[in-house]
Amino acid sequence: MPGPQRDAERTQRRILEAAARAIATKGVGVSLDAIARSAGVSKGGLMHHFPSRDELLTALMGDLLAQFDEAVTAALDPADDAPGRLTRAYVRAVFADLENGERAREQITVMGMIGSDPGVTALVRDDDARWHQRILADGLDPLRAEVITKAADGATGSLLWSRQDPRELDALRDTLLALTRDPGALVEPAR
Amino acid sequence: MPGPQRDAERTQRRILEAAARAIATKGVGVSLDAIARSAGVSKGGLMHHFPSRDELLTALMGDLLAQFDEAVTAALDPADDAPGRLTRAYVRAVFADLENGERAREQITVMGMIGSDPGVTALVRDDDARWHQRILADGLDPLRAEVITKAADGATGSLLWSRQDPRELDALRDTLLALTRDPGALVEPAR
């Protein structure tokens, strides 16, 4: 990659990280000026990379969602080719985040804060639909997969409210992983 | 209740509802002036009831948490005295919220937005710990109860991103309710 393009990417990354930090500490209404200052660029420099507030927030959400994707990919076990492989990686990635402390807390806070921004909602909805399809294709009964992934999602609340005992989180993670080992229905179909 | 006290409670309720609406639409940084205006009171009138921004946000979170408590109580089945009774009411209350559309979406958005406010976090953490204890006392295996309630919590994300097919939400709710009917371990203990 040529030097100028690499420089541009570095600047964009610095702006996105400054934006996440600023939003997490000062709220979603933080000014672009404050974000630019904290990234060490001029406001004009920020607007060169992200021409509007909406584009900055959308790029930030895209970046956070991409980081989660990468974390799931990294958590895939190459030796595991049984049904539920992706669901296991999803659970591992969420709980690894939960153990990551401040950085993950900042990411989840920011996703919650900007996720209801109209420009960002469509992006999140598409990402959610894409994950839903990926998990459905993972070879588990759909409702089993849904319970497991939703329980992992719900556990992220613990990170924000920081009540949960780490041993309890480990036990929950291990239970969810064990639940992925049986591909069948989690409960008998209703009569 | 004497008239003046009832009037004060009405005014407080109007302010809290205006605050929720303003925060959901304009962000957590919305001014107290704007909230007062939208509640039809002067800023002095707002400050008489809620002397600081922190006190207003804490009262708002307390009100939202109390509304959830009331929803769970209302969802208790008087004829049900089997283990898991409270967990079933919790699941029913969360999914009733999910079907409630705009109002529930506003409440969940606001809880997410103000939950990381330092003054509010302690309140949420205490409420979370209290729910944890109540669910643990509900007669189900603790990890079973944890998976069920966390999956219900995780499903609230669907409301915000609004992807989920209502029939899929019904199926998830029914699966979680069915899971409360067996008090034992959800998975075999690890060897």
UniProtKB/TrEMBL annotation, chains A, B:
DNA-binding region(s) from the entry: 31-50
Pfam short name (any one): TetR_N
InterPro entries: Homeodomain-like_sf (IPR009057), HTH-type_TetR-like_transc_reg (IPR050109), HTH_TetR (IPR001647), TetR_CgmR_C (IPR041479)
A GO molecular function held by the record: transcription cis-regulatory region binding
Gene3D superfamilies in alphabetical order: Tetracycline Repressor, domain 2 (1.10.357.10)
Keywords: DNA-binding, Transcription, Transcription regulation
Residue span(s) of domain HTH tetR-type: 9-68
Name under which the protein is recorded: TetR family transcriptional regulator
Protein's organism: Serinibacter salmoneus
